[in-house]
Amino acid sequence: MFARKGAGDHGILMGTSTQKDVSCDAVPQHVAVIMDGNGRWARRRILPRQVGHRAGIKPIRQIVEQCMCRGVKFLTLFAFSSENWQRPREEIRRLMVLFVEALNSEVEELYEKGVQLSFIGETGLLNPALQELMKAAEIRTHNNSRMNLAVAVAYGGRADLVNAAKKVARQVSEGTLDPEQIDETHYASALEMARLPDVDLLIRTGGEQRISNFLLWNLAYTELYFSDVLWPDFGVDEMKKALDFYVGRQRRFGRTGEQIEGARC
Ligand code: IPE
Ligand code: IPE
Ligand code: MG
Fold first, then answer.
1. What is the side-by-side order of every strand in the sheet holding 223-226?
2. CA–CA separation, 148 and 199 (whole Å)
3. I want to staple 144 with a disulfide (CB 3.0 to 4.6 A). Which of 116, 135, 211, 264 is the partner?
């Protein structure tokens, strides 16, 4: 019924973990950003937190531009985490209003620029009007291919892993999948980021050095860049610094530095 993998396929010399070709590209193919620091930006100005969230829209435009300019093909932005539901109701309400406003004002321009927009996360938990706008934005930009912009809303890395496990378990229980066929590639195809390559560079602004339940699986071999700059102040120059940091990294994926040097093109 199922094509089973032979024992020999898992020989020690073959290696079974994720393998990646040595990349000689100076530009990360996929950049993900944890846009943090809006609240502190506002507090420093003795302003309400929502003013900081609103000020966080401008850098998004700049970062999208900069990524397109540098040839980044995939950009994923963390806009609202599953843990952010624990914030005060009024802050959440204002954030949702801001998302609606941002979609209304930005989607057409993104479309014109050739950006394909998509959303990841438990979006079914969002207000139906917002869900409709998201769907419409995805449909509107569906045929664009210059850059893929994924926005993570109500996203949690652990929930993503659990949901993927459920999908795979369902395939097994329905008899369409042999458990022996479950490998990293198959499992990854059940995740929210299934269609996207692994993240090459993660940027977190706002000074914290943590992942905060963002893309747990997809960050396995990502280069991490932490900036003290608060998100509303993160502009083109800061983005250039992050991309330049990436150029200086040697990505070894478990190999030795000498192996990487030898394979350079
Ligand atoms: C990030 O900024 C935006 C969201 C999480 C929605 P914060 O609101 O977390 O800003 P700080 O960390 O309080 O400064
Ligand atoms: C992470 O920021 C989520 C987003 C930027 C959307 P948080 O500010 O919520 O992270 P923690 O809770 O301080 O780690
Ligand atoms: Mg924060």
1. 115-120, 147-155, 74-81, 30-34, 201-204, 223-226
2. 13
3. 116
Q: Residue whose CA is closest, atom 8 of ligand 2? A: 36
Please say whether the structural domain 27-156+198-249 has been given the CATH code 3.40.1180.10.
yes
Cβ 244 vs Cβ 26: under 8 Å: no
Domain boundaries defined on the chain: 27-156+198-249
pLDDT tens track, the chain, 265 positions: 333 333 333 333 433 334 444 444 699 999 999 999 999 999 999 999 999 999 999 999 999 999 999 999 999 999 999 999 999 999 999 999 999 999 999 999 999 999 999 999 999 999 999 999 999 999 999 999 999 999 999 999 999 999 999 999 999 999 999 999 999 999 999 999 998 999 999 999 999 999 999 999 999 999 999 999 999 999 999 999 999 999 999 999 999 999 999 887 5
Q: Is the CB of 74 inside a 6 Å radius of any atom of ligand 2?
A: no
The pTM is what?
A: 0.91
Look at the block and give the residue holding tokens 């926005």: 151
